[in-house]
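Obj.: predict assembly geometry.
Materials: sequence records (below).
Method: joint structure prediction, all chains together.
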Amino acid sequence: MKNKMNILKLAALIALVFTTFACEETITTSINKDLVVVQAFVYSDEPVKDISLTEVLPLGSLDTIAPPIINAEVFISDGINKYLLISDELRAGFYYYPNNDLIINSGDELVLEINYNNQQIVAKTTVPPKPQNLKLDSDTLLIPNVTTGIKDLPDLDYYGATLSWDNLDNSYYYVVIQNVEENPQPIDLQFGKFATRFVSAPSISNEYKLSFRTITHLGRHLLVLYRVNQEYVDLYESRDQDSRNLNEPLTNIENGLGVFSAFASDSVYFNAIIE
Amino acid sequence: MLKPRSTFSFLSTFIKTSILFITVFNNIYSADKRDISGTIRDAVTSETLVYANIVIEGSNIGATANKDGFFVIIDAPTKEITLLVSYMGYESKKIIFDNVKATNEKLEIELKPISIVTEDVTVVAEKYKIWKVADGISHVTLSPKQLMILPKLGEVDIFRSLQLLPGVSGVSDGSSGLFVRGGTPDQNLIMLDGMTVYHVDHFFGFFSAFNADAIKDVQFYKGGFSAQYGGRMSSVVDLTGKTGSINKFKMDIGLSSLSVNGVAEIPVFDKGSILISARRSYSDIIQTDFYQSIYGFLSGGSDTEVKINGKGEVMEQSVMPSFFFYDLNAKFSYQLTDSDFLSFSFYNGEDNLDESQEPKTTGTSETSTTQRFTNDYTNWGNIGGSIKWSRQWNERFYSNFLVSATDYFNIRNSEKGTTTTDAETTSGFLGTSSKSVEDNSVTDFTVRLDNEWEMNNNHKLKFGLWFSDVNTGFLMTRNDTLTILDRNSGSSQLALYISDKIDLFQNLSFDVGGRVTGYEGTNSIYFEPRFSATYSLTNQLKLKTAWGNYYQFINHVTNEDVLEGTRDFWMVADDYIKPGFATHYILGTEFETDDYLFSIEGYHKQLENLVEFNQRITTIKGRETLLPTSLVEENFFIGDGFSRGVEFLIQKKAGNFNGWISYTLGQVEYTFPDFNNGEAFPASHYRRHEVGLVASYKIGNWNLSASWIYATGKAYTAPESQYYLTLLDGESYGYTHVSDKNSNRLPDYHRLDVSATYSFKLKSYSGDLGLSVYNVYDYKNIWYREYDLDTTPIVITDITMLGITPTLFVKVYF
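Observations (raw structure tokens):
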């Protein structure tokens, strides 16, 4: 009798375990829907209008455009006041400040605060000082007249004009060259499809040589030199992701992805004409 | 550089001085009481029984046999006494001994092994104990003989039996070895006859690297171990191999549906023996035929397509790898004189694991078919040998001197890619392909001298020295041309230790000691004080505690791989990757009756210099952004952490129905400044809850048993989403976002195993036969998860453990 009881005990234990745990669990893969991708840039002496928020995409998604976030609460504070940004109805996912009382000055310590789906995303940056002693050694750029095509352009990497500035503390800078003509004429017909705006990579330098790679159209150009903060440099230098290691770019966004950075600039104009 | 010749010279002087001192000391302190000494052996094979217990009945005076089965009871009263001798798996024995008239002749005590086929089931007290707690804290003694009754995959397995104990993770999930109290397997010191073993299991941790038929004793220290053991931060498994029968030739042969094994014991010259044991699995062959068809029938298909949020498309599948392993143990032992014993041991074991997947069609057109393939082969193993000389200088002083050499290797070759086959010509060509090779090796040369001195009833001194020269190599390449890491390093270390087991009064004992290690790799000296104590409040109730510092000079570095499962490799410590360090704090209580043991034990381990190799993390040092492809040294990340928990145990020790229930509540957390923004994260092997249930019932010649283990799912890091960033130059970059470190959890692990064993005895041989069913309800426990992001849809593959696996087994003893 005792033996039978012991066998029954063992069998009951096995049955209990079997019925309780035998069911398989469905494997599910979920994403963190609250993760916000921030691409926020502010410029000294310019209105705040380049704050972009998007969601992440599901793993394996074939979409290349991430869903914009249009209903977040976004603030910028300068340590004294806190300014509420407004969702741009014309550019989904972008936020801007509509009034004139927010002035971005060099030296300002800015905090970006985003409240979305019961979480807070924060980022900080400091507006760098303006570039000093910006000079372009000529306000007229002479482009060689080559009728046989771009392949005959001599010294393609240097048009003979150099932009220079002071960089005593080895800061990072980048250059934007924008053709401001209403109907810009390409230097060569083959350049017709090229963009009329070029942005250089950030670098520790105190000069930039204008070349055919960056000047593709004739006419009046605006050349802007931006001083860059470290967070943008970090992002830029870590921008490539290895498909096996899955290293991600550095971010200064707390509880989010992307970058919040401030820039200060100075500018000059020049004219590109055929010799 | 520590030179072997100078080390040997130092050893020789050290031994001679010690003997002189001890001999003089013993003569000064000899009293009118008399020591009782002798050897305890197996009555059938004359195999010595290490750590067998002998006590004077009605007193606390007793002794534990040493590694050669020799014991000495210090200062026994000179009168007629009754000695009670016991050892797990053997019938206890009472001996009436007249210590008044006894001469200096040593006792030769023989114990009969417990025969499961005995007709009288009420004779002995330790009939069905599989393991028992020892006197010291966190110390367990395991009887390989008794493991036969537990559910198994065709054969007895020591490490899977240890995994059923509280504080030991029973869900090793493909990682080598034991996870003891939140420690990783590399933090365990595993020794076989004094030889350090680096890879201690076969396939998924299902089979330990040790043939249980060749092992006679297992001492397992879950933490707080004394100064005689060093070089590891977590636990110690000290295995003593059999020496073999010196009386007659013996042979065991075992066969199951997954493996075959055999042991031969050959007497040599009346005082020696040769023991040879071998095993090989053949599951790789069977899986292609009979086993695979059963598995496929029971599991019912393996591919599932899932849509996520209606937008992402993911294909999920599960894959079970095929494998085979073998191991070979050989040992020659000889009793040179009454006091000298010599042995030579050899070990060789190897695993082959094939995680390749069948090519899957990912695209078809009128003109061609594209398939994606995965080839993944891993081959690893140990080969090693040792020479040991033991000497009983006198009744109270014992030494053993050991020289050993071990070579470990681990090579993994994997390749993923696509092939496209032309529909018309059927010729194919290779499309994209990604290859990787990881090659890790360890060589270890060790010289050890261990001494035990029974000073008196209150002091048992252990002291010795330990010299090791260890070299590691690790090569990791990508696509045949890119070398990710190529690192060869080596270092020597010399350690001195001393510990004193002090018995104060009748109910309080301490073990106090320390270890000093000079390590060449860092040119530093490391001190490791150790302390443990046991206090008996009553005959049944004990309090135990331990504290100690533990250094580790060789690490199994975690190599994170989010897509294909994290792997590890061995590397010696140096100035950059400093020795690992842990401090143990342990406190526990035990209440023990004749039939039951109740135990609660809490532990906390503070961990430093944890190492991980990670190619995913971008760091900033100063003003410089360091990418994962930067300097190799920068890809090693150092952190610290802690492990803590409480273990509960109820054990029914004896009787026809016995077993135990264990529950461990634990936490293991790491902090690496460069991971997770410096925030703490759970270790990947951390499982908050672990439950073990083992039940065994004997009825006649049958033994029925069941074991069930449950654990919280393993933590892992996974790719979880995608995002895009557009830089100021207008270029847009897409990224796969990876979750926070170990922020995901696999499904909980649980498994039920059952076994029925029938023992029989015929005229000239006996044996066991039976049926074991592993994973009775065929739950697909996941080993790890793989992600292939290079296909559309992406593929998530769950690499699973064995499903339901019935195995028939038979073992015959000649």
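Conclusions so far: Residues 278 and 328 of chain B are 4 Å apart (CA to CA).
To do: check interface contacts against the pulldown list.
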